[in-house]
Each structure stands twice: as structure tokens, then as C-alpha cells.
């Protein structure tokens, strides 16, 4: 019963985090008009990153010192960002077009949030024994349902928003399916083999229905899926890169403001 309650609480917190990220990226796509709005998008994502880092520090070693370190990290990052805002307020208030560097940075920050969310919730859920080394920590994080399914929900939510606004990019949809059936997320044979087949077929559909860079993205993803039984870290790295490209491609055509 305690395990169920803990899982429910973690799921509830994760839902809030997902909603914040989705709304932030939705705002970048459709609502933000100035650099001030863009700044606050960066602010939200960076604050979430520092929050997850603080939580990880505390969960690794739950002491008063680690709690103080977590608070310092959060407060220091917030102070730096606010000072920057006050010093550049007039410049940021101007309307302009967002550059590709803005969008790629937002994409990287979003994926970093998802990775740290996966690490934090996995550590809270599974315990420190799965984080005994850097390699096992990375494997646990990137092969956890706490990484994949919040990410998938964010992707699907933003895709549905675009679909309702008639801006959906069909070449992105297979990637949502692949993150729904990652072969590495559950450790039993029925899931592993069936999800390899499903994800591989989805990659082939992506290759068929895509052009230019996304055709190569799905080709590399398909190859990485076949390596999951022997070397899952390859699939993990490819998925992380895919996600950065997903958000960049999703946001880049809608980021210009007048």
C-alpha cells in the first residue's frame, strides 16, 4: 500500500511538471510576443532544472547539508536570472523574431528537464542501488518509465495542439509512437520483443513518410532499436538526440513574432 501511495504521489508531481513544460512550449509557439516572454520561458525551464538537481543532491544524501546545497542552487540560479532581467528589461521588452539558437536552446533545456525528471523520480522510486555508478545511473534514468512516459505525454500534447490548429507535422508522429513503446523500459521478454517490433515498424513508417533530415533520423533510430538487446545505451543516446530535433522542428516554424 505504501508503494502504491508513493507511486501515486510521484505521478501527481510528474503530472504538474509535464503541464508546466507543455504550457511553456505552447506559449513559445503561439502566445509569446517579446523577448521578455521568451526570457520567462527560459526562466521556467532553468528553474525546473535546478529544482531537479537540488532534489537529486538531497536524494543521494538526505542530510541537512545536502538540503542546504539544494536550496543554494535553486536560489542562486533564480537570482542570476532575475538580475539579468532587471539589467536588460528594456531590450527584452522589444518585439522581435526568435533565432534558431533560441529554439535549439529551448529544445535542449526541455530534454534536459526530461532527463533530470527521469533521474529524480527513478531515484525516488527505485532507490539508490540503481545509481551506484555514472553508467548505471544513466542507464536507469534513460530506460525508466519516469523518463519516457512524461516525455511521450509532452510530445503528444504539443502534437495535438498543432493538429487542432492545423499545423501538425505528420513526420513527427511515428516518434511519439516509438517513445510509447521503448524496448528498454520494462524488463520482461514479452514487452522487449514486441516493442522492438512495434518501434522498428514505426521507424520504417517514419522513413517512408518523411523527407530530408527526418528520413535519416528514423533510419538511425531503426538501427538503434535493433541494438537494444546488446547495447541499450545506443538507443538511449539516439532518442535524446531525436527529442532535441523533435522540439526544434516543432517550434522553429512558429517562433517568429511581430
UniProtKB/TrEMBL annotation:
Keyword Transmembrane: yes
TM annotation in the entry: 6-26, 38-60, 66-87, 103-124, 191-210, 216-249
Key words, A-Z: Membrane, Transmembrane, Transmembrane helix
Name of this chain's protein: Uncharacterized protein
Amino acid at each position: 500500500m505504501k508503494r502504491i501511495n508513493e507511486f501515486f504521489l510521484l505521478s501527481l508531481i510528474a503530472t504538474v511538471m509535464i503541464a508546466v513544460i507543455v504550457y511553456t512550449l505552447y506559449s513559445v509557439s503561439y502566445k509569446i510576443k517579446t523577448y521578455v516572454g521568451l526570457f520567462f520561458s527560459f526562466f521556467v525551464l532553468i528553474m525546473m532544472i535546478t529544482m531537479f538537481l537540488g532534489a537529486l543532491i538531497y536524494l543521494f544524501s538526505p542530510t541537512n547539508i545536502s538540503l542546504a546545497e539544494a536550496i543554494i542552487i535553486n536560489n542562486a540560479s533564480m537570482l542570476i536570472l532575475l538580475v539579468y532581467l532587471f539589467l536588460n528589461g528594456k531590450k527584452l521588452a522589444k518585439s522581435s523574431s526568435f533565432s534558431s539558437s533560441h529554439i535549439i536552446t529551448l529544445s535542449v533545456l526541455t530534454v534536459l528537464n526530461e532527463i533530470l525528471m527521469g533521474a529524480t523520480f527513478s531515484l525516488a522510486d527505485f532507490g539508490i542501488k540503481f545509481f551506484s555508478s555514472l553508467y548505471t545511473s544513466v542507464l536507469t534514468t534513460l530506460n525508466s518509465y519516469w523518463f519516457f512516459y512524461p516525455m511521450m505525454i509532452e510530445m503528444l500534447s504539443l502534437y495535438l495542439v498543432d493538429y487542432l490548429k492545423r499545423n501538425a507535422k505528420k513526420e513527427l508522429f511515428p516518434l511519439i509512437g516509438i517513445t510509447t513503446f521503448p524496448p528498454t523500459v520494462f524488463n520482461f521478454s514479452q514487452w522487449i520483443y514486441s516493442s522492438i517490433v512495434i518501434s522498428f515498424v514505426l521507424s520504417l513508417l517514419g522513413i517512408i513518410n518523411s523527407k530530408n533530415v527526418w528520413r535519416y533520423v528514423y533510419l538511425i533510430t531503426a538501427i538503434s532499436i535493433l541494438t537494444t538487446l546488446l547495447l541499450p545505451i545506443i538507443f538511449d543516446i539516439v532518442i535524446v538526440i531525436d527529442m532535441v530535433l523533435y522540439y526544434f522542428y516543432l517550434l522553429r516554424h512558429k517562433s517568429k513574432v511581430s
